[in-house]
Predict the 3D structure of the following.
Amino acid sequence: MNNPVLRIDRVTKRFGAVQAVKGVSLDIDKGEFFAILGPSGSGKTTLLRIIAGLETPDVGTVHIADRDVTRLPPYERRIGMVFQDFLLFPHKTVSKNIAFPLKMQGVLATGQDEQVRWALDFVRLTEVADRYPHQLSGGQKQRVALARGLVARPEILLLDEPLANLDRELRKEMEVEVRRYQVELGIPFVYVTHNQEEALTMSDRIAVMDQGLFEQVGPKLEVYAKPANRFVASFVGSANRIVGSLVDVNGETASLDWDGEVLNVVRPNGAEKGDRVELFIKSERIRIDKPGDGESVNSTENRIRGRLLDIIFKGQYADYLVRLNNGAEIVVSDTPDISAVSRSDEVEVSWQVDAGDCFAVKGEATPQVSDN
Amino acid sequence: MSATALTSLRHDQRFRFALLTFPGALFVLVFLILPLLSIVVFSLWRTENYEIISDWNIENYKVILTTATYLKFLGRSVLMALAVSAICLVYAYPVAYLIAKHGGRFRLILILLTAAPFLTGVILRVTAIQHILGPIGLVNMALTTFGIEPIEVLMYSNIATAIGLVYLWIPFMILAIYLSLLNFDFELLEVAKVCGAKPWRAFIELTWPLNRMGTMIGIILVFVPTLAANVTPKFLGGVNGSLYGNILDHQFGATGTWALGSAMGVVLFVVSLVFIVIVWRSVNLRRSGFTGMESRQ
């Protein structure tokens, strides 16, 4: 029987009038890199603090390695944690910072030295062992924080936006580095972030969180490619959002009126003619051509004419900003050398019907809110 | 920039520096350095029939350092200052800690309340204490009313003096520790807990060392005035409870031996200075986490 390392069962936490976490359940297995992705205020940090024992849930339980730790203080949970602002101890050297958890957990001095040396080597910081935190660069500080979190071989490592304070280039480097730590150590990492790129780069599974609830939990490719609802579709990946009403439904498919353009879409569950819907299409799933190039129109495809407003060169790809004939603007990501289109040219954009994710807008008309 | 332009810029900055520092420097010179110097000078002269005579000698110091009574009083004052500082520290730390950590938006009001006694003068406050601790004071009156023996040590003793001094100086200790804790990142304690530290370990490993500077300032602010105390022991200490400050005071009053008094003042100053140096050397400024230190970055 392979029990999960971390099991969260129907955890709820309220701060005054704000319900930060609303009955969330989750299992995380050994060796898993799990990201909790959500905007600020979604409750993701509160959930992480509940796992750490820095907050106590109002309802629900937390099990770590088959032990009910719900009522245990953080210092009895055998966990590691890495914080956004590093939070190194300013009066201790790098070595002493890293040795701290070992010292607190009563590891003998000789064992401490050996493990600190291992950790320093592991995060490649041996040469700054005797420096103080204020003498380190941002990346070095975060490595020290990671080493401090890992040195005592915790059951699980919790990371609270650890890369948010680093500049972009360093963040890219650290993403690879953090992933390496997790793979080599084989302990689960629970990584909280608002940055979808980080979550998609590093994790195995992602939970997308909003307003105290998980909107979708699944392997990262699934979350990216098959968003479960409007929130996930708009939050993960860079998608064009198209709002309109269904003018026709026909079995699995439907037609959407988007300011005068009629688009074929996959029919959302239970949606009927006249319902308001939102269609999300990731910009890399749209193609751009010169008009008349890829003619053969068929019903599995949408094809709209427009005028190219701008090309934003990004290196490996480029974003093409197109004003469509219905007045709306749309972003298309494609190879930067898409031959011979230039600004203010007449173009045609197209996408496969099943490339878009269409959801019924529930709100004013139908007040119930989906919470899966 | 040309060399002359640079020179004139430097000149300009120096002028501004002088202009800014002049008022403060003048104040310190007139009201601190000159009186101190005059005391040093007087201490090397002698007094005869209530008159001070400029006759250079070190007789006053010899008297102080060889007379058992003076040394005894000095020793008593040092002990008193150490004890009062220690009591204030133990008492003030939790108060400052609670206000800094849990005071929320009432922090400022709470900390100002600790200074409320300053709304009246020292004499009034000490007299109030006298009326609580003395033979016909609140405590002993209450006890005798119920037929219980009054507590002797509360009446005109060094213990009564210590209670009074703690009462007088504790706001400084609370304030110094509080200001230090304001700069302390309490999140570090969460890190420590996650690392496996029980709360008391986290205090010893982080809170105490990272706030040592503020704590030491508090200790100095209590120790130095306690060492020189004379009003409090006069009111609360009784006939046998005199401290160094009382006999020092005496030299300028009844006996009129100003030169000896000055020498005693200099000795007091030196003892205070030695204490401050000892305390100061125990603090590592750069890594104490105190305001404006680069370690915060």
